[in-house]
Request: fold
Amino acid sequence: MANILLVEDDSGIQKMLSISLGAAGYELIKADSIKSGLVALSQNPISLVLLDLGLPDGDGKKFIKEAKMFSDVPIIVVSARDIESEKIEALEMGADDYLTKPFSIGELIARIKALSRRVGEKDESLSSEIMIGKLSINLVNKTVTLDSKPIKLTKKEFELLALFAKNRGKILTHTFVLENVWGRGYEKETHYLRVFMAQLRKKIEENPSIPQYIVTESGMGYRMNEPLS
Amino acid sequence: MEKLKSKAERLLEEIQKAEEGNFILYLGAAAGVGKTYAMLLKGRQLQQSGIDVVVGYLEVHGREETESLVEGLEVIPSKKIRYGGAEFGEVDVDAILKRDPEVVLIDELAHSNTHGSSYEKRYQDVLEILSHGIDVISTMNIQHIESLNDIVYSLTNVRVVETVPDSILERVDTFRLIDTPPDELIERLKNGKIYPQNRVESALNNFFTEQNLSKLRELTLRKAALKVSDELNEYSVAKRDGRRVQTNTVMVCIDHHEESMDAVRYAKRLSDSLKADFIALQITSDAPGNAQKSAQIRKHIRLAERLGATIISKISGDKTDAVIESVEEYGITELVMTRPKSRFFGLLFPNLTQSVMDRKPKCIIDVVPFEKKHPSLFEQIKPFEEMNDNLRYYLNSLAMLIAITGISFLGKDLLGIVNITLLYLLLTLFTAVRYGVTYSFFTALIGVLLFDFLFIEPFYTFSVNDLRYTLSFIIFLIVGYTSGKLSDGIKAKNKAIKNEETRFRRLYELSSKLGDFENEEDASRFAVEKLHAIFDSKTIVFIPDESDQLKIVSAIVNSEMFSSDECAVYRLPPNDLACTQWVYRNGESAGKFTNTLPNVEMTYFPSKAFDKTVAVVAVELPILDAPTYELLSAFMNTFAVSLWRIGLFRQNQHIKLVEASEKLTSVLFNSVYHELKTPLAAILGSVSTINTPEVIISDVSEKQLLENIEESALEMERILKNLLDFARLENGLIHLKKDWCDVEDIFGNAYQKALKQHPREDVTFSFDVDSSPIKGDFSLLEQAFLNLFDNALKYSKAGEIKVHAVQRGSSLLITVSNPSDIEGSELGNIFDKFYRAEISAKIKGSGLGLSIIKGIIQAHKGTINATKRYGEFVLTITLPIDSNDSQMNTEEG
Reply:
C-alpha cells in the first residue's frame, strides 16, 4: 500500500481525492500548507506527492525546492495554473509531472502508476535492460528491440530513447533533454530535438502521428509512457 | 508672451478652454449699478430660450426689482455654515454639481467665504464649477480687482479688503460692463434702492460721493477697454497694423553693456507700475560674432525673460532703424534705453540712444543712467583668429593702394592728376563694397596721404601749397566713409533677410512635417535630424516616461544616429544628468551659455506646451546668440506642440480601445452566460436526481446520469478554455513563445484530444503530412487545430475528414476538408465572433472556435480561408515556416 502525500488547501479536492484514490488502493496523507506538507514528508514513508501550487503560506514551488533537498520522492503538480512558464519552472525545479485542473481521476491514477513503477524499479534500472511495452532497451550493448525484432538507431536516437526510458513517467523539458543528450550550450536548439524525435518515433511507434511510447506534453516537453496494451 | 504664442498653441488653448464652462462676469463701478439685476435678466432670457439655468447664490439686499426677477428661476439653497454664533450662507458647490445645470448664476464674486467652508474665496467655488463644464455668470465691482487695489485706495481713500486676483479675470470669457452715471446712482441710493434707509446717510458721506463714483467709473471703463484690446490683440496677432487700442507697452533695448541689466530692471518696474506689457528688444548686427559680447547679451536676455519680458529679436544693419520699427510695430509707449557713453564720442559717433531720440519716435523715452565702468581696452582686443579676416582686408586694401600708386606714379604724365584722383576714388569705392566702412575709410585715408605725398606740390612732403586740395581731401574721406557705411548697411540687410529666410524655411519644414508623426520616437528622430542639419553637432532628445523619468529617445552623437534602444545604454556624465533634470523640473534652459550649470558641454532646452515640459533637448552649440536662441525656442515650441498632439492622439486611441473592449466584454458575457448555464443545469439536475432519496433509480440510470455529469463538466471546461484564449487574443495579451514544432506532433495531440471530446463513429480522419518543423507556439497551434478538428467532428457529415500539410516555399500549406452542408453564402461570416452557422443550430457551441483559430493563425503571421468545394467545407491555412524571417516582425518577448 503506497502512501501518497496530498498538499492541497481546497477541502473539496481533498475530499474527492481521498475517496477516489482510497478506492484505487492508495493511502492518502493530507497537508494543507507548505510547512505541514514538509513536516508530513519528513515524518512518514511517502512514495509520491500531489502538490497544489497556490497554498496559503506561499507558492508550491517552494515546497518542491525544499523537499528535493532531503528526499527524491516523485512530485506531481496538480494546479489550475495553465501558464507554460509556470509549468516549466516547476518541472525544472524537480517536479516530475504537471497536471492541470480540472483533470480526470483516470488520468491522475495513470500518472501516479507510471511514476511509482519507475521508483519501484529503481534498483532494476541499474541493470542493463529496460522493458517498456514491446520495447526492450539494452543499455550496455546499446541495442533496442521492438516486438523482439531489432531496430537500428543512430547514436543520438539511442541516447534520446535511453534518457526517456530511464525517466519513465516523468515529463522531461526540452532544456533537460537537450542538455543531457547534446550537452551544455545546446539548450536552445529545439530544432534538433524536433527532427530527432520525429525520426525516433518513426522507428518505434506504430503510428507516429499518434505516438504511444513518447508523448508530447504541449508547452512542457515529452514523457515516456507504458503504452496502453 | 501672449502676443507671440504660436497659432497651434492658441488653438489648443481654445480647445482646452472649451471643455470648461463659459465664464461671464458683470462688472460695475459700485454697488447698486444694477449688476445683479442684469445677471438675473440674462438668466431669465437664457431660461426662456430653453437653457437650464439655476441661481447658485444671490444677495438681493432687499431690492424689490431684483427679487421679482428671481421668481421662476430655480434657486439652489445656500449652504449654511455656523461660525462665531452666527449662521452664514455660502455657495453650495456640491449641490450645484449634483444638480448639474447648464448655467449657474452666482452673485458677488469677490466674497470671502465663512471660516469652515471648503474654499476660502467664492471665486474658487466658481472655478471648481467651471471646471465641471458648467457655465457661470457672476458679478463684481471694479474695486475688488487686486491690481487696482492701490489705485482705488489712492482715488477714494477706501481700502478694499476682499480682492480677486487678476488671473481670475483672465479666465473670464466675456465681460459685461454695467454702467450707471454717478448722479443717477446717487439718486437711486437716496431712494433706498441700494441700501436700507438707515445706511444711506453714511454711504453718501463715505463712499458714494460723486467724485469717488466718477473715478471708479472711469477706472471700470478703462479696464474694460483694456480687456477688449487684449482680445483684439489675440484675435489679430498677425495684423500688426497699428489698429490696436492704445495700451501701455514698455520696451527695453538690450545690448552687451552691463548697464542693460539696470535698464531691464527699470523697465520691469515701469511696466509693473503701468500695468503694461513688457518687451525686451535685442538687435543683432551683421558684425562677426564676438563670443564674449554674445554671452553678455544672453545673460541680459535671460534676466529679461526671468522678469517676464517678451523677447523680440531684430536683425538689422542699422540699430536705430530697428528700434524705431519695433516701436511702431509693437505699439510701444515707453522706451527704456541706456545713457550715451560720453558727450565727446556722442558727437563723433552718434550713440544709439541719441540717434533714436533724434528720430523722435511716438513714445516716451526713459534713459537709465549708468555708473559701471567699461571693460578695459585690453579686454576689448579680439583674439587673433578673429583678426585674421580683418588683417587680410587691411593687407588687401594696402596692396591695391600700392598697385594703384605705382601705376599712377609711372603714368603720371599720361593720366593727369584728375584721373589719378578718380583711380583712388575707385579703389575706395571698391573696398567699400567688398570690405565695408572700416577698410574704405582706411583706404581713403592712406590714399589721401599717398596722393598728397607723391602728386601734390610740393612733392614728397605732406604739406599742400594749393589749399583747395585740402577740401578735396575732406570730400575724399567723406566719400570713403559714407560709401562704406552704405554698403555695410546693404550687406547687413541682405544677410538678415537671408538668415530670416533660412530660419523660416527650417521652422516651416519642421512644423509641416512634425504634424505627421504618430509616436514620440519618430517625431524625436525627426527633430534630432533637423537640429543636426542646422548645427552639425551632438543632439539628444529626452522624453519623460510613464514614471516621469527622463529617457533618451533619440540622439545623434558624432554624426551617428542612435535609436531609442541603443540610447538606453548611453550614459550621460553626472553634471549633464543633473542638467536635464533641472531643465525638466524648472522648464528653463540650462547648461553651456546659460546661468545654470554652465560648465557642461551642451545646452539643454525645455520643450514646453502649456507650461508643461514635455521634452528636454540637448544641443552642443558653438555659440548661443540671440537669433540662434530664438530659432531654438521656436523649434522647441513646435516640437512640444507636436509631442502634445501625439499624446492627445494616443489618449484618444486608448479611449477608443477601451470602449471597444467594453462592448466586446458585454457581448461576451451575455453569450457565455447562456453557454455555461446549459451544462450547469445538466450537472445540477443529474446530481440532485441521484441525491434525492425519494427518487429511486436503477444502477444503469445512475451510471447514465454520472456520464451526463462528466460530459457537461467537460463541456464547461472547454468553454472556459476557449473564453480564456479568446480574451487573451483579443487583448493582445498572447505572447507567442516560438520554438521549433513538429507539425505532425501538433496534429496528433490535437486529434487525440478532439476525438476524446467528440467521439464519432461515422467519421474518419486521414492525415497526409509532409513537412519539416515550423517555428511557432506549440500550445497555441495545438489549441488552434484542436478547435479546428473539434469543429470538423461536430459539424461534419458522415465521411472522411482529410488533413493535408505540404511545404510551399517558405510556408506550410495546410488544408482541412470535411463533407458539409454549410451554405456558401455563410462562409464570409464564419470567422466572426459569436457567429454560428445555420447548420450548427442544434449543436452546442459558443461561436468562438473559428475566431480563436483565426486569431492564433494570424498571430503566427499566417492566413486562413474557408471555401466550399464539391460538397466539402475546406479550410486553407498557410503558416510561415519561420515567421522570424519574414519582414513583418512585430513579435514580442
Observations:
- Residues 2-235 of chain B form a domain with the Rossmann fold fold (CATH 3.40.50.300).
